[in-house]
Amino acid sequence: MTRFWGALFGQRARRRWLHLILGGALFMPYWLVGTVAVGPFSPDGNVLGGGLRFQLAAYAVGLPIAALTALFPLARPMSVAAARALCGVAPGRFADGPARGSGARARTAGWFTLHLGAGALLSGATLALPPFALAVCALPFSAELRASELGRFWHLDRPWLAWAGLPLGLLMLLGLAAVVAAAGALLAREAPRLLGPGPADRLAAAERRAAELAVRNRLARELHDSVGHALSAVTLQAGAARRVLDSGAAGADLGFVREALSAIEETTRRTVGELDAVLGLLRSGEDDGELDAPGLDALDALVRGAGPGVRLTVGGSLSGLPEAVSREAYRIVQEGLTNAVRHARGETVTARIALSGDELEITMENPLPATPPVARPDGGRGLRGIAERARLLGGTAQAGPADGTWLLAARLPVGTGGGQR
């Protein structure tokens, strides 16, 4: 019994009832246009005085006009907003944004017409039937009502028959609630089919997810390269300074210790700035935000932070490179230095950057350690990130052992990178 009353008068049923009344309110302008159209055919030129037949004719004229206006793309967001709030359907089953394509517009027009058509009838019944039903319920208690046209219409003009008006009026109210609940359930059932995503919406959603994934991958690469390099460089510099101090020699190279501490300070300050830029984009939620990432003009600071064992050679002027190429080349060198100083174990690391025609060549080389390093559980992401950065610019990157050394070689085209990010 509780379930029955909840289906008729529960919160979900009340919201769907309100949704239908909203449809009736939206239908009023179309009905008024219909009255203008059918008004000349009524006996006195006024459809309101022409009876129920002419009002239904105005209703029939207004429905196709409502369907036509629903073909505009923005009709779907309005309908989805109302249905999502009032129909009791899971929000994820609705499409987002304006209707795309003729099929989506046709489904939206079908929903809009169904909503407004059913809403107009049931909102009119909601306004007219309850007062009438209450008057029928009051027949046993009012001789004037029994003597009126209402009592004579129901043949309840006698007091002992008038008591039949009480259950009759209640049945009218229950019938109205049942019809409204059934109509609301019908709209809720049809809402996902008529307002749900179509092929064009699914394609747009897939493209959105791909773009978001690309942004997340880009930010992940930035964090990995920037923070990973900084931690490796700081660890190496701090370890070297500690070994000098622990040697206990009277002539300990305090200048080296001071230089190591300065490199640690510079590296951490630069990395904190880069980390703030990445986290700022994450907090703002802007997918197309531009990272304030360093370029090849910051190579000197990068090499100083990597330690004294790095030898960098620059061939030609790099000042005229496109911003995207300069930025990605810096990250490739940074990740290469991170791997090299981590595994070279004090050996010299040589790096060379030079322009060769319309390509920027990056080569980094360091001796292979006698004992292979312990493999990371996830296999590491640095070399994969280097390959991704080069591929995004249309270039190539390779890394691996070569004649007793570890060699990283990357080629980046400089003529097509200006527009990349």
UniProtKB/TrEMBL annotation:
It catalyses: ATP + protein L-histidine = ADP + protein N-phospho-L-histidine. Its EC number is 2.7.13.3. Keywords: ATP-binding, Kinase, Membrane, Nucleotide-binding, Phosphoprotein, Transferase, Transmembrane, Transmembrane helix, Two-component regulatory system. The keyword Membrane applies. Coiled coil: none annotated. The keyword Transmembrane applies. It is an enzyme of class 2 (transferase). One of its GO terms (molecular function) is phosphorelay sensor kinase activity. GO terms for cellular component: membrane. The chain crosses the membrane at residues 20-42, 54-75, 114-141, 161-188. Residues 216-285 form the Signal transduction histidine kinase subgroup 3 dimerisation and phosphoacceptor domain. InterPro entries: HATPase_C_sf (IPR036890), Sensor_HK_TwoCompSys (IPR050482), Sig_transdc_His_kin_sub3_dim/P (IPR011712). Pfam families: HisKA_3 (PF07730). PANTHER family: NITRATE/NITRITE SENSOR PROTEIN NARX-RELATED, NITRATE_NITRITE SENSOR PROTEIN NARQ. This is histidine kinase. It comes from Streptomyces showdoensis.
